[in-house]
Amino acid sequence: MYRAVKSNPLKRIATQSKRFVCSKYFPEEPIVPTILSSHIPGPVSTKLNNELGEVYSNSATYFVADYFCSIGNYISDADGNKLLDVYCQISSIPLGYNNPELIKAAQSEEMISAIVNRPALACFPSTNYKQILEDGILAAAPAGLDKVWTGLSGSDANEMAYKAAFMYAHSKKRGENGFTAEELKSVMENKTPGASDMVILSFNKAFHGRLFGSLSTTRSKEIHKLDIPAFPWPKTPFPQLKYPLNEYEAENKAEEDRCLQELESTIKNSSKKIAALIVEPVQAEGGDNHATPYFFQGVRDLTKKHDIIFIVDEVQTGVGASGKFWAHEHWNLTSPPDIVTFSKKFQAAGFYFGNPDLQPKQPYRQFNTWCGDPSKAILAKAIYQEIVKSDLVNHTAQVGDYLYAQLKALLGKFPDKVSNLRGENYGTFIAWDCATLEIRNQVLLSCRAKGVNIGGCGDASIRLRPTLLFEKRHADILLSVLEDVHKAL
After folding, report:
1. Is 416 a catalytic residue?
2. Cys-Cys link to 37, which of 59, 79, 214, 325 (CB 3.0-4.6 A)?
3. Could you say which of 66, 79, 313, 373 is catalytic?
4. 344 is catalytic
5. In terms of residue numbers, what domain contains 162?
6. How far, in Å, CA of 389 to CA of 379, rounded?
7. Membrane-crossing residues (predicted)?
């Protein structure tokens, strides 16, 4: 068990550097993980989870967390264990647990008003909502996109983006003509022409959410989709690259060309008009699958050629983790995406767009009671301002370069157990494959037992999702634990 005591070899690793960006936020962050229970989850966590299970679905629980005692890059559980967290609520903690600047934002008069007067934003927006957006979410907008529609979650953001694409495509088809009597009558029977027969195109192994529309574009795991009615929407292959990339340039280009050709074939042969195409910069839940800028440039060119709305799903990749604020900035596109969705690390959700015609002209079309949450937009504002103030995107890029190089050397010692390290020059958005699902699961459990909370994805992959305040000293702890775990396999 790792404990924060003088004999702990991790303490020497963690104290080598004397100036940390994390320290100004968390001077009392633990130096190393502390493990007090013989197992994780421990007895207190197990008891609490069993009690919770009597009233709440909790079959996916790793352990019960104590967020009052969590701090910085460390998550505390109900048994008092403090684990270095490189999973961070499935990529959703940008600035560490109990960040003092976010606590200030949470205690502001602005926040109190937003929480206790929770507005129905589409009908009764607050006097300060435009300013909240302009100082945060809109200040962070991807190049070429100067408008935003806010929502409740990543799935909701994608669903709203689909609705915007459908309404836009039909409005172009309809022109200046209003809705026909046939459209108005048939839509109430869930039939065409009032109900659209257009489709959304997604990629194999994609994950875009668990609501009805988003789930129909999700292709990562069967368990996500079983028993749920689905739209008969098309899919196309996503490149399966070989690593290291510099050793397989010709093979990978051929694979991306194949996928681009199949994409255009799917578009041309679709019996239904494709209103939009959606893609993740990295297919996170599907296994952290990457593609090169060449591929995404090709996708963008095809959407332009065939008049298809191009949606980039940055729910998991956005807000700095890739070494760019938005991961699609790595692509150097000739024209920006039509829509970019966001959530997770921004603690808020929605989609960006530039074309005003993507906003329906009639009221109540893109609509629900809350249309987002100003309290979350206030948090997003504080998150954005701290990222800029502390230059955390560049910090994450530098730490990611260090971590990738060290992982390459470490995992290279175990070629029979791991392969396909990926995420070079992509911040801390790093992953690798294990030889089997059993090995992957054993690594996750063993890391947790040694004080590192880490996550998996895909068939047998491990992914890293640390905070933007993750430093080399944290990376060294992770590396030490990973080495111990792989030696013991």
Report:
1. no
2. 79
3. 313
4. yes
5. 109-389
6. 15
7. none
